[in-house]
Amino acid sequence: MKLSKSEYNKSSYFYDEIMNEFKMYFSLYEDLVEILKPKSVLELGCGMGRLFWIFMKEAKEITGIDLSDEMISQGRKYYAEHKVENAIVEFVNTDMCSFQLNKKYDLIVFALSVLKHLSTDKERLAALKKAKEHLSEEGFIVIDQAPLLYASRPTDWIDAKNSLVADWLPDPSVLDGYQWKKSLKGNIDILQWRYENSEEIQFEVQFTTYRYDIDRLIEHLSQLDMSHEQMLTEWGVNGLGNKGKRFIGFACYPGKKYSPKRELIENVKKRNERLWSDFDLYIEDKKSMKM
């Protein structure tokens, strides 16, 4: 936990300039907000709150929790400057394993494999338990979880603009000079980014996460007596599919009859967008994958 906080504090400007441009997964939350129409949303590991504008389409109360005080500071500043008037936006700088807000939410979000930032099963189970404690009786916990980030194998340094990472961005030119690298050390999953200019490394940051397999996630949900359903298993550039190795689904209290899965799948089919699977992607550059 302390390692992740330090890394994300250091990388706040990189997130602001590069990572906040990655919008390939926004369609999932746009669909879910349209379908579920939640009046209150809690996001765990919210960073700077880049999903909040989507939540605001229906929600009147949005709370984000993040361990990085720098990320929280940037998020508060951004939403203060943009004068949000149609919703109450709150950032809480705390640990997702032990928070207490004394509120219940219609929708609780674990986006982009955020549970991988917790290093032990004890911490992951605690975070899921806390989410359940803050869930309204008719609400849903939405979970997007991949065991590994970007790829299942190590890589050497890859030019970001020549890899499929560039497909995540509306303007791939912002990746000029950036490279990324994937390392695996047992259950430790390390993603590094750097910026190179005139053969000089001017910026470098790494994100340390921990492998968290889908079957273990499902086991933890069962331990908490939560019903669950897997809706989709892979991302698209702007859409989603169901052939990959990712858990994109929800948890709720047992006995709940309604499921948003059918409506979500219908929206995905209507978009008919190009898809990609997480597990063995981004090993080769874009040109070689097209050959």
Largest sheet: 7 strands, mixed
- Helix/strand class: alpha/beta
> Would you report the number of β strands?
14
Q: pLDDT average, as an integer?
A: 85
CATH topological fold name of the largest domain: Rossmann fold
Briefly, what CATH class of the largest domain? Alpha Beta
The percent range for helix content is 25-40%
Distance between the termini: 42 Å
Number of domains: 2
CATH superfamily of the largest domain: Vaccinia Virus protein VP39
Note the run of SSEs as H and E.
HHHEHEHEEHEEEEEHEEEEHEH
Task: Enumerate how many helices there are, as a single number.
Answer: 9
Q: If classified by CATH, what would the architecture of the largest domain be?
A: 3-Layer(aba) Sandwich
What is the percentage of strand-forming residues?
A: 25-35%
Shape, please? globular
| Strand order, largest beta sheet | 3-2-1-4-5-13-10
Low-confidence runs of at least 5 consecutive residues: 281-291
Cα Rg: 18 Å
Topology:
Blueprint (H helix, E strand, L loop, with lengths): L1 H9 L1 H6 L8 H11 L3 E5 L7 H4 L5 E6 L2 H13 L6 E6 L11 E6 L10 H13 L1 E11 L12 E2 L18 E8 L2 E10 L2 E11 L3 H10 L3 E6 L1 E3 L3 E2 L5 E6 L8 H11 L3 E2 L9 H5 L1
Parallel strand pairs: 1-2, 1-4, 2-3, 4-5
Antiparallel strand pairs: 5-13, 6-7, 7-8, 8-9, 10-13, 11-12, 11-14
